[in-house]
Amino acid sequence: MSTHVVADSATMFRRNLLHMIRYPAVTIPVVFTPIVLLLLFVYVFGGTLGAGLGAGGGRAEYLAYITPAILLLANTANAQGIAISVATDMTEGIIARFRTMPISRSSVLAGHVFGGLVQSLIAMAASLVVSLLLGFRPQASGAGWIGLLALLVLISFAISWLSVAFGLAARSVESASNLPMLLLLLPVLSSGFVPVDSMPSGLKWFAEYQPFTPIIESIRGLFAGHVETSDLLAALIWIVATAVLGYMWARSLFQRRALR
Amino acid sequence: MTSTLAPAIELAGLRKSYGEHVVLDGVDLTVPAGTVFALLGPNGAGKTTTVNILSTLIRADAGEVRVAGHDVVREADAVRGKIGVTGQFSAVDNLMTGEENLHLMARLHHLPKDQAKAKVDDLLERFDLVEAAAKTAATYSGGMRRRLDLAMTLLGTPSLIFLDEPTTGVDPRGRLIIWDIVKGLVADGVSIFLTTQYLEEADKLANRVAVLNGGKIVADGTPNELKRLVPGGAIHLELADVAALEAAAMLFPEGVRGDDDLSLRLPSDGGIVALRRVLDSVEQAGIEATSISVTTPDLDDVFLALTDPSARKEPVR
Ligand SMILES: Nc1ncnc2c1ncn2[C@@H]1O[C@H](COP(=O)(O)OP(=O)(O)O)[C@@H](O)[C@H]1O
Ligand SMILES: [Mg+2]
Predict the structure, then answer these.
(1) Hey, are the CB atoms on A100 and B85 less than 8 Å from each other?
(2) How far is A69 from B99, CA to CA, in rounded Å?
(3) Are residues B220 and B254 in the same domain?
(4) What is the CATH number of the domain that holds B239?
(5) B288 is in which domain, residue-wise?
(6) Which run of H or E residues covers position A95?
(7) Position in ligand 1 atom list of the atom nearest CA B52
(8) Cα A229–chain centre separation
(9) Looking at the domain assignment, is residue B315 inside a domain?
(10) Model confidence over B171-207: pLDDT tens digits?
(11) Do the beta carbons of residue A191 and residue A72 sit within 8 Å?
(12) Is there a contact between B175 and B196 (Cβ–Cβ < 8 Å)?
């Protein structure tokens, strides 16, 4: 009912950015975890796993293969950061103050979502730069890069709403990272690190149908310059569904907590 | 002057329980606009719960609650547009500086930039926070935090302000600053709903005081009316000599003799009728009294007499 949804959300977004700068203890691991995993996978497992990709496979091929999954790991690591920030924020008295003011109810949550989006874009950019330094050479066209950016922003946006809901659902700050932990496993159990065909049958079935596989295939396709429409469509459906679910869940949790 | 305005607060049959625990068991109150109302009660009496319901933070189980003329549930946003709240627990952003906290409020109230700056600077000045303006609130002392909290509340120019124990944990200097600000607000026509543990504070600031105990309002009136409700008041007579003291003691057998200072202490409500009766009796009996004075109980006596003794032993929260 407030007519200032955009202005209030922008104000809350500024507040979250300031928090990130003043208290980087949440942002730093989000940026470095995927980079460390990238180096680990490429240099420790890269030779062997690369050979498993097929004829002529090696470390360089494996780098190209896992870069999309690393970008998603940056996203899911960020989910923990957002959930912890939200859970911490809910214990602060200032949230009670916001609730006694005539401001849009979702602006507090939107501030966390957009703050999380920025954090995730920073983490993904950092990982991509490291991957390029290690020798990753994407074949994407100009339009392909725009599509890639759009897709990554949408994914971050959807996961941010879900993470805000996780943070609100947590009973304490300590337990806020439990639900996003499950999210962190999903890229690993997808086509992100090894081809689905190499997995045992039960796992293979899960990996084929879980949301991260079409998302990873789409990113991989965009990097390579030829994306499958069916992958892209499946990815978009999953992303929109996650965003809508996350938004509605977060809103209802925030409302309920407001009334106690 | 304010008779045409809707009352600042109208409460009827307010009830709230947490599970089996009944906190508010039918509270009725009316606070006229432009006045200061103080709610007293022992720890756990339900003062904060009442403030939370009035300020739209939580919902009552039953009862009619209107704030600034609006229903707190159906017209919550209209209520929020009129009120300012300084809760019992600090509501500042610890990672932001004092100045940034105030600017955050200015932005949420959609003030134009130049107006915001003028207002923020003025509040920093009035609340003695100029030096601390650029430090993060996490480094503030309890008193500074309280002052910043109140300054943030004032940024929206509310017509009704809730202050839940505004001076608890504040040093005497900070307390004086806050009292002065409250008096200034009242002079500007703002209504204040205050809860406090300090009876002196209620006595100094409030037009009306209510005591909340056992989920109900057990007393309600001006500070002076409340003081007359309880025993503890007395009329002190000082007599010219021992003979006069003897005579007065015969006249008022309930009096307590002070042989050292030739005085007689008569328990009384301290009202005019009682005083006149004593004066008349003394005069008719021809007793020579040198002076007469009245002591009334202070609000502490009222509080102790009206509230549940077991509740008072609870530790301060
Ligand atoms: N969220 C809650 N859940 C359960 N009990 C509560 C809750 N909030 C307050 N109470 C209880 O309600 C009673 C009144 O609390 P409160 O309004 O804070 O009292 P006061 O402010 O007068 O000290 C206390 O016994 C307190 O323990
Ligand atoms: Mg309280």
Answers:
(1) yes
(2) 43
(3) no
(4) 3.30.70
(5) 234-296
(6) helix A93-99
(7) 17
(8) 22
(9) no
(10) 888 888 889 989 999 999 999 999 987 777 888 899 9
(11) no
(12) no
Q: End of a domain among B196, B211, B227?
A: B227
In the numeric block, the tokens 């725009």 are attached to A146
Chain A: residue whose CA lies nearest to B72: A100
Residue B309 pLDDT grade (very low, low, confident, very high; cuts 50, 70, 90): low
Domain that holds residue A133: 2-256
* A26 phi, psi to nearest 5 deg: -85, -40
> What is the pTM (predicted TM-score) of this model?
0.82
The residues on A that touch B, with CB distances below 8 Å, are: 1-2, 4, 7-8, 11, 14-15, 18-19, 22-23, 92-94, 96-103, 258-260
Nearest to A93 among B55, B91, B104 (CB): B91
Q: β-strand B62-67 against B36-40: which pairing, if any?
A: unpaired
Pick the last residue of a domain from B227, B257, B275.
B227
User: Does the distance separating the beta carbons of A97 and B110 come in below 8 Å?
Assistant: no
* Core vs surface per residue A137-152: b (16+ CB within 10 A) or e: ebebeeebeebbeebb
CB-based contact B80 A102, cutoff 8 Å:
yes
- CATH number of the domain within which B181 lies: 3.40.50.300
Protein residue whose Cα sits closest to atom 6 of ligand 1: B18
| CA–CA distance, A104 with B97 (Å, rounded to integer) | 24
At B16, which helix (H) or strand (E)? strand B9-18
Please count the structural domains in chain A.
1
State whether B239 and B171 are in the same domain.
Answer: no
A43 token code pair: 């240099």
Is B98 within a domain?
yes
Q: How confident is the model at residue A205 (pLDDT cuts 50, 70, 90)?
A: confident
